[in-house]
Design goal:
- This protein has 269 residues and is α+β, with helices and mostly antiparallel strands.
- The protein contains eight helices and ten strands.
- The strands form three sheets. The protein has a five-stranded antiparallel β-sheet with strand order 5-4-3-7-6. It has a three-stranded antiparallel β-sheet with strand order 8-9-10. It has a two-stranded antiparallel ribbon with strand order 1-2.
- A hairpin with a 2-residue loop joins strand 6 and strand 7.
- Helix 4 packs across helix 6.
- The radius of gyration is 35 Å and the shape is rod-shaped.
Amino acid sequence: MPIRFDILRDPVRVLPFVGAVLLFAGYWAIFYLTTEDGFTRAAIAAANNTLPAIGLAWLTHLVLDRYVWTANPSVGLGLQVPLAVLFALVWYVAILVLRELRGDWLTEGFAIRPFVPIAFAWQMFQGITFYALTALASLSISLSRRLRRAEEQTTGEQVIERASMLLIATGDGAETVAIQAISTISGAGDYTEVRLPGRAIYSTTTLAEFETRLPQDRFFRAHRSHLVNMDAVERSEPAGNGRTTLHLADGRTITSSRAGTRLLRELAL
């Protein structure tokens, strides 16, 4: 399945990528400008702070999107504070672990040193703030997707509705009718008679043209002069010589030809 990435159509999806880049750039600038570390060491330190945040943000979005945004709004709102604290704590621990890793940690081990209180408080503030931004982006993505699905569903229903209608040319214009409402279409001299509940309209469209435009699993050529909607047939009975008498829901009867009888048998369940 191809991945669609249309910023103009769905700009909110680019927010996590922009946030990750800005977070890394901010950390790198801080480490590079406030310590004696060079470019590379500042980049490594920035990565140690950024990568856990990106992974946590992705995991948080999955959890929020699947379990929280679909829950009762009051439940989802009540979960935000504990989730924010948990996010900040996990990010803090991940930073502690990553910053102590060295090339020989598998053989020599490593010791985790906590931040001083003021640094810990600042890190927790960053974690909660970043969680809030992640939650907002996740909610925006979730709402955007739901809105798009609703639009697609509405469009699909409109297409189905349009497909169930038929524009019929009449002598003085045209009229749109529901295909399901048509019981029969019959030849009537220079016109065709389209029978609807309680009325009939006369069209300049030929019977053969109607036959090509109507769904062939519902309408069949009962006779050279009649197209019949299967749903309008209440019952049928033999009329002799391979023909069939069709009793329609509006009280009319139509006698089908032998070819029409064969079509009726093919369409009957």
